[in-house]
Amino acid sequence: MHSAPSVADTASSVRTGRSVDPAAPGRTVHTYHVSSTAEVRAAVTAADAAAAAWAATPPLRRAAVLTALADLLERRVDELAVAITREEGKAIAAARGEVGKSAEQFRLAAQLAYLVEGTTFPVEGEGTFTYTVRGPLGVVTAITPWNFPLSLVARKIAPALAAGNVVVLKPSPVTAGVASLLVDLAVEAGLPADVLPLVQGHDTEAMAALLGDERVRAVTFTGSDAVGALVRAQAHGQARLQLELGGRNAAVVCADADLGKAAADVAAGAFGLTGQACTSTDRVLVTRTVAEEFMTLLADRVRALKVGPGDLTGVTTGPVATAAQFDRLHELKDSAIAAGARVVAEASTVDGLDPHGYWVAPTLFADVPPEHPLVAGEVFGPFCSVVLVGSSDQALDIVNSSTHGLVVAVHTADLAVAHRFAARARCGIVKINAPTTGNGVAPPFGGWKASSGGAFPEGGRQALDFFTDTKTVYLSHGEN
User: Fold this and answer.
1) For the segment 97-112, what is each residue's pLDDT rounded down to a tens digit?
2) Is pTM, for the whole model, over 0.90?
């Protein structure tokens, strides 16, 4: 068992926290100040005071700031990627990709600044002109997770800022340093500091005060179901909510699929990013007639993975991000094996690993009891289970029986099957012949059922629906 590092200096009235390197948890990466209730309220006050000026800033200026921030991210990609790997653990190539995706988010948002548009309506009465105007909400709170410490922050704050909102950013304490670096770069790009105040740490009273502050018009959150329920309970009644929660995702491999490509895609979706994505593949539903061949191909992919520090050449899979993740996943694996699950294949580790690192080897399972959490719950780690099915229709029924509905991937050469999944899968995202992971910045992103806690998906132009209010104007003119 690994114990989590201490994150508070209780001997002082000024509390500090630290983030650590999950590959060597004795190494501190970043030290930060834990925001108190008074400091959280002061941050909201500062943001509220800055809201009118930022809302009145012309779209050209807002777009210029967001573009300048994208430029800074691209110029400092190496520094940012190293920061992500050291704090979160992912392989350096994936960290570089995250920086690139984040820059893309800000470039898209620069365009959104010009798209806060209204509509005119047909005349219903003589002498009346009716139209709508859209404007920013005001103060928005963004609460972000550790698994994508840069790109998920960008996906939330970029469109909010583009629309003229101010944002109080509350990142995960696990990746506090990456968030701090992003805020510094935003100010360097020309964003007024009070337009994006940063609050850090995990003071429960301070977070309750933030969510309950009636000056906060909206809360956008990505994280676990449990914390999502807490956000919903603590947010004040007038706050608009956008909650992206758990996944419990499946890949479906049909009998006519290109099995080699399907194995590569399933391996990428299940084991890439150390399985720590809400879109990761938890289970693969394989048509029984091709199961043996597919499992052999997928097992070869698993054995080719190398576990080690994310910045080490040849490593494909970094450590999991936290001690809690390490303990939970090892307990899940042991429990599944005790219940009768069979380990089909495991990844290897590089030599010389820190024995205290949060190492969890990618593992492929079979024969997992259907009620076991390894197939019935969200794994959020580098484990994947093969489940045999008789047909694609049975697989679709299994997918739709889940309490969650984020993403499903179906591997098939039959367009009819592909279209049937697209039409009938009760998920927010359907992938055809692709991994469950990986999403563009322009399309909407969001789950159905328990995977989402609001009516507003993230991403693209649709983000403006969440971050703006609509006002209808009736303009009477002339004589009635």
Assistant:
1) 999 999 999 999 999 9
2) yes
